[in-house]
Amino acid sequence: MKLVLASHGGLGCEMIRAVAMILGVSVLEKAKCVELLEGESLENYYEKLSKSVDGETIVLCDLFGGTPSRAALMLLQEGKVKAVLTGFNMAMVIDLLSNGASSAEDAAKSARDAGLQGIRAFIGPSLSEVTESPGESFYRKNKEQI
């Protein structure tokens, strides 16, 4: 499996360097990054990204709906990459580079779960963890009134 981080600016490249601090420099051989430059068109970015992938590549994008994810999803539709995950974070990259999943689907599921579990919110000096979103609270209140 090959891993490519597609991002606005140098975010993907810096993420790989940060993950190398944890997993070791060998990750620099396993993961590549493709930066979207300011003012760059979707068509130009698509061409750049397509030169860095093959049919076994998993592409991680920084933001769903942005130019990097749009280009990556075009490549997925064309069968030129194996999977695309959006909204990457460090937990997802570490998981993909260390989980040894046997299939792209298993790797994508594991990375998605790792990314979601890595998102935590704390408030106040007592480090109270926020465990529900405002939408969930709204839903529960309305459900109790029914």
UniProtKB/TrEMBL annotation:
PANTHER family: PTS PERMEASE-RELATED-RELATED, PTS SYSTEM MANNOSE-SPECIFIC EIIAB COMPONENT-RELATED. Keywords: Transferase. Residues 1-119 form the PTS EIIA type-4 domain. GO terms for biological process: phosphoenolpyruvate-dependent sugar phosphotransferase system. It comes from the Archaea. Transmembrane segments: none annotated. GO terms for molecular function: transferase activity. InterPro entries: Bacterial_PTS_sugar_comp, PTS_EIIA_man-typ, PTS_EIIA_man-typ_sf. GO terms for cellular component: membrane. This is PTS EIIA type-4 domain-containing protein. It holds the Pfam family EIIA-man.
